[in-house]
Records
---
Amino acid sequence: MLKPLFALSFLIAAAAPASALLTPEQLTPAEKKVYGGLIATPATARKYLVTREYLRLCDAVIADPKTAIALPVQPPTFSERYLSMEERARVDQAVDLNIMALLSGGRLA
């Protein structure tokens, strides 16, 4: 049963419009401080921005669970290294909502 579910999730993620990458200007002051220490390594700085962007997408799903079905799969450059334990829990919660939405055909209460 998981293979069809994974395939459905992949198709939805592939069909969903890619959001614009978070820019350094959109970071909170605390995030900017961390980002400033990573900017010397562009690939690492990009991973940080991708991770923070995905966290924002997850927060939006938590705020409005009806949008959970549109949550894309975690990007390949997503890294939990740049999340606090509380932020990791929020990502897990949003992914759980996404799975429930997929299993229920998008009908979340």
---
Amino acid sequence: MDSKEYKILCDRKDAFRREWMEKTITYLKEKRREDLAIHIEEVLSDEPIEKPHDFRGDKGDDWFVINISKEVHEEITNCLFSLEASSVGSDGETTAKASDVATLVDLWNKKLLG
């Protein structure tokens, strides 16, 4: 595989970085939604998208194709959205956590909904 093919695969709507999935799992478990986290853990147990031969990076740079139902996707997004809202400070100011979760909500919506 060359770099151009790799970029095409990673740009797919259903391709997610390891980092995004690991953060999502952490936040889902925080909300006691292990039932949703397990779907992402299953993806992480698969092989990542093959990297180009000249790729320089580590497993933190892995991308995976995530195949979940629309219903599970909606539940994950709703759970993250709820966590984002509850992470805003009592003064209405955003927090680092709220910002981090908001980024994940945006990624889940952008990547899987297009």
